[in-house]
Amino acid sequence: MDKDKILFLLEKIAAGTLSPESAFDELKDLPYADLGFARLDLHRSLRHGYAEVVFSPGKSADQIVSIVQKLRETNKLVIATRADQALADQVLAAYPAGHYEKLARALVFGEMPGTTDGALIVNVVTAGTADIPVAEECALFLVAAGLPVQKLYDVGVAGLHRLLDNLPLLRRGAITIVCAGMDGALPSVVGGILDGPVIAVPTSVGYGAAFEGLAPLLSMLNSCAAGITVVNIDNGFGAAYAALRVHNSMLKVSANVLNGQTSRSSTNDWHSVSAPDRCGISASL
What we know:
Helix content: 40-55%
Number of helices: 12
Strand order of the largest sheet: 5-6-4-3-12
Radius of gyration: 20 Å
């Protein structure tokens, strides 16, 4: 249930075109819907501005379909992450209302929004080509939230000139997400060059001593470039959500809604640029 839908219901009640009883019927599933095997947080978009996201591993195709169908009742866009091709085929055979983003390994139900006016650019960078699936998961959610994304792939430290050639591009971004496996060194380099928030994503790319992403994770946590945010291994979605939190705080500052400066006009400005329903990102873990 998103902010705009609740406001619409309240306006209809105020105008006398909808009875309180009918409105109650539409709102009765707040704050969550119990499907027996899953309790869907229908209130999350009101708290965060974005709804839940379906984590596919460990769920059957039937469970994913039931979750998605329920979330679609109150969200314009629902995405299921980490679905392999076989699972995606089963889900779409039962519920063909979506499509499969193979590179991002995600099922998408609903139309992706356009770019939100005033949204800040987010860079999504990879050290190698093998890191792209994690980066694409990240980029998918940023686009789903209405943010413009600049992609810069395969610019790792083994050929640092590839990154340096693209510094003008990177400096246009307000937030930078860096996905890297192997030694996980690239976020430190980017963090040492750029002055904006840098979010590091260790990937499970690498040979034996990379320990399926543990080595780059530890490298990023020990970065000498101060202030880098680090998410879990292969967690492109988590990096995107971290970027969205930073982005929303930036917009609040620009609209003077932090530090006790809230006014009615500035609050309205903030809601206009952060419209929660632009992303039906909806998560059932």
